[in-house]
Amino acid sequence: LIDRVENVNASMYNVDRRVAEERWMKPGDLVFFKGIRNASGGNNGLTRASSRFVQDDNELSCESLSVYYRFPDGMLDRYRMKNTRITFFTGDLFRFSSIRRERGLDYPFSKTYTLQIQTTF
Description:
2 helices, 3 strands, 8% helix
């Protein structure tokens, strides 16, 4: 969090949304994050690790889910099919967390879905 928001070099790297929207910008701002490098490239002071950046990570996620249905053999006898089943797989279905994270190039979030039909003749 320190390197993504307070010690970030916005002129050289893509930055977290919090750098632009949730940091100190003008006198009187009451925000969690201090300002970033000034326009001349100077640093407004390197932030050292402290307890201010320790966060409780309460998380509930579904990393993968698999559901299948096996058809009764008698149902597909006229097609000479046995042990027929249809399966649905998914990955990264959902994630709830007390820590707000931005997903980007370094840690993308993608959902995958797979439908599989399997049988023997």
